[in-house]
Amino acid sequence: MNKAIQKHPDYKKYVIDSKLQYFKPHASKIEKTFAEEISSSLNRESKFIVPKFFYDKKGSDLFEKICTLPEYYPTRTEIAILKKLKTELPSFIDDSFRLVELGSGASVKTRLLLDIFTQMQQTTEYFPIDISEILAESSEQLLQDYDNLRITGIIDTYEGGLEFLKNYDDKNNLILFLGSSFGNFSPTDGKIFLEKINSTMKSGDLFLIGLDLVKDSQILESAYNDKQGITAEFNLNVLSRINDELDADFNLDNFSHYSIYNKEDQRIEMYLKSLVNQSVVISKSGLLLNLEKNELIHTEHSHKFTLDQIKTLFTSTGFKINHTWLDEKTNFSLTLVSKN
Ligand code: AVJ
Fold it and tell me: What residue stretch is flagged as signal peptide (predicted)?
């Protein structure tokens, strides 16, 4: 191809077959390594580990398990709402739309949307955007199950992938961001993220986002403190990951899972609590970590929203709301927005 007319010079295209292709940036932008991030986030007075590190293979499996727990209402509720979209979403989209997903869709949720798209369209394009390359397995499976599907994976950050898509062509995109993953952002970062998404959207594009709602503290706290202790295992697993990948010697017996609902800030706060005074070596981060008994390492914020806040959030970041769908108990929401 002539370099001068190449449309995406920063990405390499991998064509697997007529139905599956990938785009991957040549050189991933100067991102900090796991070792560096851990070294800086634990080497300070208020210690934290960012939640994206939960998701190694074991952590992803544990999260899948969380999604099926009786206490963890979000997944089940969002699926129930998505099922209602089957009759209602078609009036918002047509043949010109492709489905874009932030995060790769191995899940039933993606399939519920693909059911809608593939029934309406001759051929459906699905563009998952994900940094992890496990994209491959789930794509193969989807292609086996949907005849008229074409998949283009973008192996990049959400922002990077959307920026890529902006210059890709002028087909309309319905961008999915499900599971209340948005709840991990601080209010400030969340706004910046939405503005970024807005800036990559064309005027006809749609954005469908799943957000968890403010509710009774007890319901929230039991969703993050399940009886079987799977959430605890999920939280503690990040220490095992650091042990394995960064050559550290965390003794998991010396930590406990701690999670509470902060009503004022409307968020679940998750921590790992040090049960004793202890020192931990993290070789690859070059760190000797001293922890006091009862000291907390922050691992996650999961923000919850009111319907009014959802309205303000989108109108203040350049969107107009097309529709918000809720379950009967108003536990969870799906909001469809477009550029204002
Ligand atoms: C994937 C961020 C939506 O906040 O509910 C579940 C992660 N953490 N249980 C959430 C999670 C503990 C989940 N999100």
Answer: none
- What CA–CA distance (Å, rounded) separates 249 from 251? 6
More confident of the two residues 28 and 201: 201
pLDDT tens-digit series, residues 243-282? 999 999 999 999 999 999 999 999 999 999 999 999 999 9
Question: Which fold does the domain 3-31+96-216+305-339 belong to in CATH?
Answer: Rossmann fold (3.40.50)
Residue spans per domain, the chain: 3-31+96-216+305-339
Query: Which residues are within 8 A (CB) of 24 and not within 5 positions of it... i.e. 6 or more apart?
Result: 11, 12, 14, 154, 155, 156
* Arithmetic mean of pLDDT, 38-65: 95
Tell me the best of 302, 303, 305, 331 to mutate to test the pocket of ligand 1, counting ligand atoms within 8 Å of each CB and taking the most. 302
Q: Is the CB of 235 under 6 A from ligand 1?
A: no
Overall pTM > 0.90: yes
Please say whether the beta carbons of 207 and 175 come within 8 A: yes
Cβ of 224 below 6 Å from ligand 1: yes
